[in-house]
Amino acid sequence: MLFQRFSRAKTITIVLGLIFISLVIPILSAWGLTAVFLGPTPTSRLRGMNGTMGGHPNFGDDLQHLY
Fold first, then answer.
1. Contact (Cβ atoms closer than 8 angstroms) between residue 36 and residue 48
2. pTM of the entire structure?
3. Distance in angstroms (rounded) separating the CA atoms of residues 53 and 48
4. Buried b (16+ CB within 10 A) or exposed e, 13-48
5. Distance CA 63, CA 1 (A)
6. How does pLDDT run across 16-60, given as a tens digit for each residue?
7. How many whole angstroms separate alpha carbon 27 and alpha carbon 35?
8. Distance CA 47, CA 38 (A)
9. 65: buried, middle or exposed (CB in 10 Å: 19+, 13-18, 0-12)?
């Protein structure tokens, strides 16, 4: 009886975890893409000051000049 209850709770936890992951990953990737392309977010502002992103020396600075 205890084993059945434990395995049911484990299954519910796994299912909820998968749902949570499938919801969070698209949100995070969409935020990451908009942060790269839109500019006035903290991460791309840091990237623009650093001046280097993925081998493009002035990519962040060019994004800053759009605004």
1. no
2. 0.37
3. 8
4. eeeeeeeeeeeeeeeeeeeeeebbeebeeeebeebb
5. 61
6. 999 988 888 877 777 766 666 665 555 544 454 444 444 445 555
7. 12
8. 12
9. exposed
Sequence letter at residue 22: S
Helix (H, G, I), strand (E, B) or coil at 56: strand
pLDDT at 62: 52
The total of other beta-carbon atoms located within 10 Å of residue 63's CB is 19
For residues 37 and 64, is the Cβ–Cβ distance under 8 A?
no
Q: What pLDDT shows up at residue 53?
A: 46
| Those residues with Cβ within 8 angstroms of residue 52's Cβ, 6 or more apart along the chain or in another chain | 60
pLDDT at site 3: 63
Residue whose C-alpha is closest to residue 48's, from 66, 31, 32: 66
